[in-house]
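Hi, here's the filled form for the chain we discussed.

Project: internal
Contact: R.S.
Residues: 154
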Amino acid sequence: MERLSLALSVPGIIIFLLAMIPSFIFMLLAPEEQMDEERKKTHLNAEELSRDFFAFFLIAFSAEDYGNVIYLVVAVFFLALYYIAWIRYFRNGRKAEFLTSPLLSIPVPLAVFSALYYAFSCLFINNTLALGLCVIYAFFNIKSNLKKTKEEKK
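And the returned structure, exactly as it came back:
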């Protein structure tokens, strides 16, 4: 296990922001009916709490060395798929069904691809603390999105 130190991680900041760019655009351009009132309120739940701790550990802890470059290549691949899922949403009239509809037969692609991007990024920067929290966040985020998709189909 790589030794982590409490220090601002520039790679961690970049990793976090690269995945947040489409979310920022979504917040600016999403139709009002897609902005869930519950999500607008500040509240704590397992998904949000794990995401916040994950982001903190990703940004606030740094390792001296990087992992295998293969992890970076795989992370970039999943980031590209994540962007493709977002582009599909924006190019198809910002319809809500494109936020959760399968891409390449992968259910809830925004949740799955972002989780895989973050996981492989954590492996590349040797941040095992953030990786553990990433797994927890991914579980709650994917579960929440699958539940939302199932409710929308009813």
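Let me know if anything looks off before we file it.
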